[in-house]
Amino acid sequence: MASLHLPCATTPSSQxxxxxxxxxxxxxxxxxxxxxxxxxxxxxxxxxxxxxSSSQGKVDRRNMxxxxxxxxxxxxxxxxxxxxxxxxNRRSSTSANIVDYRLPPVFQMKTRPSAHRVSPExxxxxxxxxxxxxxxxxxxxxxxxxxxxxxxxxCNGAYDQPGQGTLDLxxxxxxxxxxxxxxxxxxxxxxxxxxxxxxxxxxPFWNWDNPKGMTIPPIFVDxxxxxxxxxxNQANLPPAVVDLGMTRNPDPLQVxxxxxxxxxxxxxxxxxxxxxxxxxxxREGTPVNPGPGASERGSHTAVHVWVGDPRQPTGEDLxxxxxxxxxxxxxxxxxxxDRMWSLWQYFLPSKTVPDKRITDPxxxxxxxxxxxxxxxxxxxxxxxxxxxLRMGYxxxxxxxxxxxxxxxxxTVAARVTRAGKSASKAxxxxxxxxxxxxxxxxxxxxxxxxxxxxxxxxxxxxxxxxLKFDVFINDEDDNxxxxxxxxxVGTYAQVPHKTANKSATTSIRLKLTDLxxxxxxxxxxxxxxxxxxxxxxxxxxxxxxxxxxxxxPAPPKPS
Length: 559
Ligand code: C2O
What we know:
With 559 residues, the chain is of the alpha+beta class. Helices cover 24% and strands 15% of the residues. The protein is built from 14 helices and 16 strands. This is Polyphenol oxidase, chloroplastic.
């Protein structure tokens, strides 16, 4: 591993370093991370024009909307030369002092701990930091309320895209989901560290993907703690097991099995290309919600809604995007979401998704504004957040019990014919409003085990509601509260949020190839698709379902 290259002065920082010698801590955690060290390098090219994009002096009406001392982070749109369309970006602010953010050199790698395993010293420190953040003056952009509002602004259509009529700006349900939240946590963590004079402070992650972490971490449930929030579902406080499938199965052991299946599915089995995991492209002038990635719509959404308080009008705090940031647990939940991104990029075998990078300039150049730990308004780009080690943090290494949690093979031949007798043909039922279980027969592209994707098109949703449905293939058994079986293919779900016209249209793709390995599809040329809503009442309409050939087939397995 090459050493960190530090050719020039770094950005001023109030952090005190105990060592003047830049040492790059060994990235000891994930095995594959060790290989990545050689890519770490700090370039100082950015230092020269650090301020050149500031002070355009234009008053942006959305800044006016939110008021001074409020937050300014929102979009404006600039052209990206050479790009097919434009990245979501911004170029002006009332503060006239936006600095292009440079990642500081990494002196010491921070390790984000699993929230269930932290020491009393850590809890004390984290509490103190949160307490200080809560006590900052209201107009300090680093105060807790202002930090919470950042989420509201980027996530609830508080801003429109300029010149685009009623098109909102929305980082969710698109490829901006992971990058936005990574930067958001990055600055939140640095602010907390600064408040306690500990630049190595690292946020804990809620380890909901591991059975040992499948309750709300105990450090968040003490009413006297600065980490507490009373607006949570009281029925889901510990020892309740988090229900990543929202199946409401009353058996906690079955819920754990469901959770591990969901993780296996959304991290490994269900994705065919990078967008299936990351979310669909979202560019200037395009509508919100182009389509969420598997992790966003799956475990991420479920945790929000599961924690949100049903006593509140719209599931506050975690259960609605506008209020989610008001619960300190949000940042712990999202640390695990971020960890999933990092694991997916650098740890998981690449066999199912051959190329995990997005090289589209509209993605790489998309930019956000945040306040850093010194209350400086900074502009950050997606391309600078693709590698968490370059950003100076890693995650505690914990077992990944879902990694091999492949459902048992379905040995009984799929009896499409028998169950299929009662099912309608796909062509005849769509579009349909999904308010009860629906079974349809969908033609395959080839008979038997083929490399195929199931596509659900024109899913139109009422964005103000919690909506979720699960998809099964050739499922003969009617126990819809059990997901640990080959027949479970995936899910669509959304966290309630506001959009200009309360609706959005999206689509998802679910990979069937590996699932066929676990069930006998004989040489059928049709599969039976079962759609199971987990929400009450109407709210979702599905335009159509089809099976297509996998356009990005994985390389052949080495024999
Ligand atoms: Cu911005 Cu989990 O939401």
